[in-house]
Amino acid sequence: MSKIKTSYIQGKSQGSIQANLEYYSLKIEEASKSGSKLIILPELFLWDYFPITENKKHFDLAISLDSKEVKHFQNLAKKLKVNLVLPVFEKSVDENFFNTALTLNESGEIISHYRKMHIPYDPGFYEKFYFTPGDKSFLVADTSIGKLGVLICFDQWFPEAARIMTLGGVQLITYPTAIGWDEQECRGLSQQALREDELNAWITIMRAHAIANGVYVIAVNRVGKEDHLTFWGNSFVCDPLGRILVQSGTEEDIQVCEIDFSKIETTRKIWTFLRDRRVDSYEPILKN
Amino acid sequence: MSKIKTSYIQGKSQGSIQANLEYYSLKIEEASKSGSKLIILPELFLWDYFPITENKKHFDLAISLDSKEVKHFQNLAKKLKVNLVLPVFEKSVDENFFNTALTLNESGEIISHYRKMHIPYDPGFYEKFYFTPGDKSFLVADTSIGKLGVLICFDQWFPEAARIMTLGGVQLITYPTAIGWDEQECRGLSQQALREDELNAWITIMRAHAIANGVYVIAVNRVGKEDHLTFWGNSFVCDPLGRILVQSGTEEDIQVCEIDFSKIETTRKIWTFLRDRRVDSYEPILKN
């Protein structure tokens, strides 16, 4: 199966887990009507972006992998016969907390369980307060429609993550994301020009991962204002040459995009980067 | 010294080593008049791009590090008091051949001797026929004006190279380059749109190295048509946020660009990527 339809849902938090569950379920149903076999949701899509502040009470918002919320989406994936990338605020059996993304197959089974490896900690993005850094390395989700590499948000700034996914055989890397501008200017983003530059850098680095690795990339952000953060949307899909195929603005949006996996081989025959790596010389990457 | 002026020379081959030596020497003199303390030349700037074909006789074109050509530029660097990034087709004492870039300081001394690590081999770019892959790893050139990471052309497609340079302390990565379109269409580039896409990918991936690592990047390409290759120019400088500061078209060009090294620290304080790497998990990068 060379060509598949994929969808992403660029949504806005509805203020509670239950409200978001209903909101995104409707959107998943809508996306599946297009014939999409893979539907991707934004980072922590069931929650307000709680790491905007540091507050112990937010630990109560975490859910387990056998929670009713996860089961709900397992049933939905099975009913619609779609693969679903499902980001969750995970409470583990031993009471650790992770920023997680599950991959569900068309039968609703969890076939991959990724825990965000790179955890940010910046004004408005206090994730180290909540999340244990991922302990499962970079996992390939081997679905019936192709090999997915699910990473999460901040992972997108690290070429190592995309490279390791590629070396593991992935054809499509997806980044459920929650990124935006901080109106408190605490990240130095007071000027409009700088805001555009940050957005531009965010798109550029993920296009570069596609180019360096000869894979598709799907970035799925949220939108809307939450406290002093404005999530910048601009979710997109790009091909292995880094060409943007579809892109959203700053409003709620569902996009459907056809992915042609045969283009990966075509591109890699032109650009033989993976042939010419110097693995004998990369050891310094293992140090800071 | 936070701010320095740098120049690059986007030149066109004049058909012989001697003609190119004279042509580039004049341009170096011109660039130095702007007050530039660092001048960068394109890959193999003294030669027609001979790897366009495979021909044993081209080995006779290589020069040694104590050749009169290298001495000429050492004298020029000393006379003008500039640092010079000098790409050469190097014949080593034991008759190996390398695609090399020397860094000369203001006294004309060779302070860094980099041998291209990633060697392409594609129709029109038969470099593996000529060049032994670099055996000196990724070297930091510690100049009086800052720490340079000199890489060469094809290296630009490998995030590992830029990352290792950064971990070694470089503030500015430069890529002397010879890249263009092949009119024989053998690289699948028959359509104008695809040509633009390739150029765009080339710029994108180097901007991404700047962003991922919080460093400046200077890419210096050649122009002109040689046999069935048309070198695409478009040399540029970008800052640690990936913002393009100056950029050339497809004609011969000298650009002067002020680099403010203090922006590196500013950017890295906003974007703390280097703080948050997961060096415990990157081992798969050492394999193919």
In words, what does this structure look like?
The structure is a homodimer of 288-residue chains. Chain A is of the alpha/beta class. Chain A has a single domain (3-286), classed as Nitrilase/N-carbamoyl-D-aminoacid amidohydrolase (4-Layer Sandwich), CATH 3.60.110. In chain A, 24% of the residues lie in helices and 27% in strands. Chain A has 5 helices and 15 strands. The termini of chain A are far apart. The mean pLDDT of chain A is 96. At the A-B interface, helix 3, helix 4 and helix 5 of A face helix 3 and helix 4 of B.
Which properties best describe this structure?
homodimer, 288 residues, alpha/beta, six-stranded mixed beta sheet, 5 helices
Binned, the helix content of chain A reads 10-25%
Largest sheet of chain A: 6 strands, mixed
Largest interface: A-B, 54 and 53 residues
- CATH overall fold name of chain A: Nitrilase/N-carbamoyl-D-aminoacid amidohydrolase
Q: What is the C-level CATH assignment of chain A?
A: Alpha Beta
Distance between the termini of chain A: 42 Å
Give the helix/strand class of chain A.
alpha/beta
CATH superfamily membership of chain A = Carbon-nitrogen hydrolase
Shape of chain A: globular
Order of helices and strands of chain A: EHEHEEEEEHEEHEEEEEEH
**Low-pLDDT regions of chain A:** none
Counted beta strands of chain A: 15
Using the CA coordinates, give the radius of gyration of chain A.
18 Å
Please, what is the average pLDDT of chain A? 96
Strand content of chain A: 25-35%
Quaternary structure: homodimer
Which strand order do you get reading across the main beta sheet of chain A? 5-4-3-2-1-15
Level-2 CATH architecture of chain A: 4-Layer Sandwich
What is the total domain count of chain A?
1
